Amino acid sequence: MNEKALQVLEYHKIIQRLTELAGSEPGKALCRELVPSDDITEIRRMQRETSDAVSRIFRKGNISFSGAADMRGSLKRLEIGSSLNIEELLRICKLLEACLRVKNWSRPVNDTEEEDSLTVMFSELQPLTPVVNEIRRCIISEEEISDDASPGLRQVRRSMKITNDRIRTQLSALLTGGARTYLQDAVITQRNGRYCVPVKAEHRGQVPGMIHDQSSSGSTIFVEPMAVVKLNNDLRELELKEEKEIEAVLANLSTLVAKEAEHITNDILLMKELDFIFARAKLSHSYNGSEPVFNTEGRIRIRKGRHPLLDPKHVVPVDIRLGDDFTLLVISGPNTGGKTVSLKTVGLFTLMGQAGLHIPALDRSELSVFTEVFADIGDEQSIEQSLSTFSSHMTNIVSFWAHADEKSLVLFDELGAGTDPTEGAALAIAILSNLHRQGIRTIATTHYSELKVFALSTPGVENGCCEFNVETLRPTYRLLIGIPGKSNAFAISEKLGLPDYIIEEAKGQISQEDESFEDVIADLENSRLTIEKEREEVNRYKREIEELKQRLEHKEDRLESNRDAILQKAREEAQTILRDAKEYADETIRKYNKLGNAANSTREMEQERARLREKMSELDKKSGIKAAKKPKKELSGKDLRIGDSVRVLSMNLKGTVSTLPDARGNLFVQMGILRSQVNLKDLEKIADEATITGPSYRQSTGSGKIKMSKSFSVSTEINLLGKTTDEALVELDKYLDDAYLAHLPNVRVVHGKGTGALRKAVHQYLRRQKHVESYRLGEFGEGDAGVTIVTFKQ
To answer: What residues contact 462, with CB distance under 8 A and at least 6 apart?
Structure first.
């Protein structure tokens, strides 16, 4: 790609932004070296990598590659047997720690996370944790090696500490002894790495030792007392041993690193490449970019593209297309209307896309792969080179004219400007016609009406314009393809206050043909605005209808969902209440049946009756049933006689008065086989009718006149086939209670023949029942041995 186009289209500013986003120097170096490619396979690979990196950033947040230094030079020295210094070992340690940090960041958040183009690169990183731990164990900082780096170093430093302490003890004794008066200050200092004391110059002979220095005034000399000379010599020897031990430690660490040199080199290359990829992803994230779709057919479709170097809060997105119905686009319109920005947007997007960078446009925007991009944009006139505006443009065009082919993209800004309009327009038409015949994708901006006519009359060439609002004298920066633009010089001048007579005189200077052409453009513009307004209104109505439809559907779904939920809840509650009531009623009947045949069971039966009443009240509350009605007329003891027919309101049963009320209004009422104590407030007197009283009810009334609900639902046969013994006996127990209360004379129990186990269990159960008179196997026609006929007591 030619350097001229990169400079004119401001590609280097994009690279500068990209470089700032890289976290390591190797990554920044790759960013600075990034140039567009014309290999579509490489372009798609880089775009895929950038997209995958953006996806990872959205899922996990940003990642840092700081510390990933390029240490390949140090590793080269290891190959020839050299040792690394402390700083180099620490930089390698930081590199490996960065690898570990990046590798941990790349681990999947969950099992559903799919692999992408970066997975292999992350998996190949080798953090070499043992090497890192060993370096950190031995090296504390760039100035300090740990005492535990080696046993020899630990021993030497222990000896140095002891020697230091002995020297200080000797010197401290000197400072506090008789020599104190000979000293300038009672301090211990060092000169040339040896411990000394400051002695007054006039007393130098009083403190025997070696003189190492004197003060600038000469009044103080620094003497190493003879008592510590040997200790200082020992300390110096120990310092030399310490240096050797440190060199041995660094040599051991260098050997350890040299063994992993291949892995470390691979880590350097991977970290550099990953840093480069994630810098591209961060750049895409900064301007909300998307991956363009590349083709080799010369087709460009930019959807809502925004120039990346303009303020994102004010830039107006543009839709640009080229290469489908037309290969040449002529953009016209007023100055500062956005023509040059649209031109640069196409060129810069092409360069960015072919460099593997996302573009700030909507998804599914398309770009084509071009081998070259030629741009003649801007005024490069030069006094020194005797170049005018026109000459500079022509010089630039001539420089790339011989190199442009059908795989090139050519961009012209104000083609033919800077010279006589007639000649400039003719020259521009000739240049564009020649490029169009070669099939070269070209975009040109112009003010010449001749070029607008050329675009209207030539197949494969299309007009475009940058919209301008005459009322506000401001461009809207929208690019409209298919409509030629107006310069609007007269309208702008009139708005700015130029006298009308001058404008009218100016209009008289243009030909009738040119005026007609401008009128046609004005009519087209008015028609376009009208159509756009109508389309906008239609779209608004469509959106409103769609919103109303969605709200209505949502409301219907909500109502349907609520209705189903309410019905389901009601069914569940009703089922629960019925199940509880049925189970409690069955249990109560069994208890009454057992208590009715036992002596002195009246009190227990009454207690059971009270509990039954409480339970019924609870069920009424659960089911929302209103409380039982009060009697129509409150009864007194005088209103009742033995044998009167009454209704027990709490139980909704009819019965006969058995005893007269006592002082508290309690009396006994016979309800079928049930005799219960009730209060006058719970009774309602009814007209005499044939009621069921005592054990003689079977002779006076038929079963069809029985008023109890059981008689209407109990069958004369129970089928126990397919049930286990336990299940069958539970069901048989309940059935016989119901049949006995319904006053059935006999029933039929179907248990089948089989092994005879169920028949045997049924017969053993019937043998223990007090209300069973007799039982027998069925005869021929009744079911034979598979059926038992049970007769109840009368």
So the answer is: 325, 326, 328, 329, 330, 455, 481, 482
Q: How far apart are CA 242 and CA 310, in angstroms?
A: 62
DSSP type of residue 703: G
Alpha-carbon distance of 684 to 702, in angstroms, equals 26
541-570 pLDDT, tens digit each: 888 898 888 888 888 888 877 877 788 788
Q: What percent of the chain has pLDDT over 70?
A: 83
Q: What is the DSSP string of 149-166?
A: G-HHHHHHHHHHHHHHHH
pTM exceeds 0.70 for this model: no
The residues facing 684 across adjacent strands are: 647
**Separation CA 669–CA 647 (nearest Å):** 9
- Greatest extent of the chain over all pairs of C-alpha atoms, in Å: 154
Centre a 10 Å sphere on the Cβ of residue 139 and count the other Cβ atoms it contains.
Answer: 22
pLDDT at 204 over 70: yes
For the CA atoms of 526, 531, 533, 534, the dihedral, rounded to the nearest 10 degrees, stands at: 140
- pLDDT-based confidence at 692, cuts 50/70/90? very low
Give, as one character, the DSSP assignment of residue 785. Answer: G
Three-state DSSP state, 504: helix
Please compute Rg for the chain using Cα positions.
Answer: 54
Q: Which helix (H) or strand (E) holds 468?
A: strand 461-469
> Can you tell me the distance from the alpha carbon of 185 to that of 587, in angstroms, rounded to the nearest whole number?
111
Tokens 């925004």 belong to residue: 306
For residues 281 and 53, the answer to whether their CB atoms sit within 8 Å is yes
What's the rounded mean pLDDT across residues 36-59? 93
- Which residues of 89-131 form beta strands (DSSP E)? none
pLDDT at 700 (0 to 100):
40
Q: Above 50 in pLDDT, residue 698?
A: no
What is the predicted pLDDT for the residue at 509?
A: 65
Q: What is the 3-state secondary structure (H, E, C) of 506-545?
A: HHHHCCHHHHHHHHHHHHHHHHHHHHHHHHHHHHHHHHHH
Burial code of 195-215, b = ≥16 C-beta within 10 A, e = fewer? Answer: bbbbbbeeebeebebeebebe
What is the mean pLDDT of the segment spanning 9-35? 93
Residues 6+ apart with CB under 8 A from 478: 316, 318, 338, 466, 467
The predicted pLDDT at position 632 comes to: 63
Q: What is the pLDDT of residue 164?
A: 86
**Helix or strand or coil: residue 334?**
coil
With tokens 């033919």, the residue in question is 416
Strands 408-412 and 372-376: parallel
Please, are residues 360 and 318 in contact by the beta-carbon 8 Å criterion?
no
Report whether 663 contacts 625 (CB < 8 A): no
pLDDT of residue 704: 40
Q: Are 138 and 146 in contact (CB under 8 A)?
A: yes
8 Å CB contact between 673 and 589: no
Matching residue, tokens 């027919």: 645
Cβ atoms within 10 Å of 625's Cβ, excluding its own: 12
Question: From CA 609, how far away is CA 677, in angstroms rounded?
Answer: 9
